[in-house]
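Practice problem: predict the structure.
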Amino acid sequence: MTTSDILKRYDMTVDNKFIVHANIPSYAALFENYDYTSSFYKRDINEKLVDYLLECAGEIGNRNSFVIRFDLPGKEKSEREEGDIITGFTNYFDYLVTLSRKEIGLALKRMLIHLSIAVFAIFLWLLVAPGDVENPVLGQFSLTSGLFAAVWVLLLTGISRFVYRVQTQLRQIRLFKKIKACPIQFNYRDEGDLT
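Answer:
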């Protein structure tokens, strides 16, 4: 399936933005249930909704714009609640960006630990490496060869994990910022209207 085939799934606005639809029964359905006493702008967004928005933002891509459109029953309409929801989305995706940046910091710390262990192992290898490579003692040669291999494995593993984790988190940050910046629209339907 090509990118253009995927994008055909989405409706478009009159100004050529993709529409990410979410049909919900109430404002409260946008948020996690465990924190139902806080205002909408302080609550965590429903995890399934976040996953859905991330998937859609990834499909639509960085070059295309989109809007999020929540379809709700007409009885739910409240401008104050709409404002709180928009603020809540901004706050929550800012929070997710902060978490991703924290994860990058942790990945850097792990990489520095790998590097420190590797440097220590190199010094240890230099201390126990045989001076005469032609006639090394068998045990000493095995130990130094093993240390040398361990240093390379440690470095390569640490670097590859670091690069993968940072790349993943940077991609997430881009998606979080894209979702945070996109307009949120509310579409209210009559009780008998299912479309």
